[in-house]
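Narrative of activities, Objective 1.

The group set out to show that a structural description can be obtained from nothing but a protein's sequence at a throughput compatible with the screening campaign. Below is one input-output pair from the validation batch, recorded exactly as produced.
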Amino acid sequence: MALLEIENLSVNYGGVQAVRGLSLKVEEGEVVTLIGANGAGKTTTLRAVSRMLRPREGRIVFAGRDITRVAPDEAVRLGVAQSPEGRQVLARQSIQDNLELGAYTRRDMGEVRADIGRMYGRFPRLGERRNQLAGTLSGGEQQMLAIARALMSRPRLLLLDEPSLGLAPIIVREIFDIIGELNAGGTTILLVEQNARLAMQRSHRTYVLEAGQLTLEGDSARLVNDERVLHAYLGG
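Output recorded for this entry:
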């Protein structure tokens, strides 16, 4: 049984049908990439999985449980966490405060503190600046904080929306190294990423969305050389 299974999902966003009839699955331990042009429905799909948007049709099944109608905080408790597009850190709160808020569904305060220490070990620059306001961090540091904040809920499935957006190439490589380390440590990842080539190089499988509909799917190593993907998304 897949960790995440989306069945015939349709979602309206801003009065427009942004996703229609989408079905996909993510197996435990995978990194799965969603690629597509702007407006293809990638972010809408992630927001539906994290329960920030209500589907019009279809089902979202996580770890064998139908979560299509659960509240967003319940989805987090069940093991789904999202690092959103644009990072959306709490700019006027400290790094420490952001991490504590990432654990808002938890009650094991001793373990929360231990996890914050682990985040500082994984992201040393955050540890060095733990009392600094998040809004004063660089773009790369804010992205690290957004990922660390999502990890504070101890997710089984991490949703990453455009983690490389607006970052310098050297920082992008660092972020993708972190993604690889997280996956190697057992975190399953559903990734939306503008850098399609890099995302496909670092993922197991890829789904291609066009105008809200799935048009291609398969092993990333195969699709990265597919002529249709090459010309549409990889600049070939």
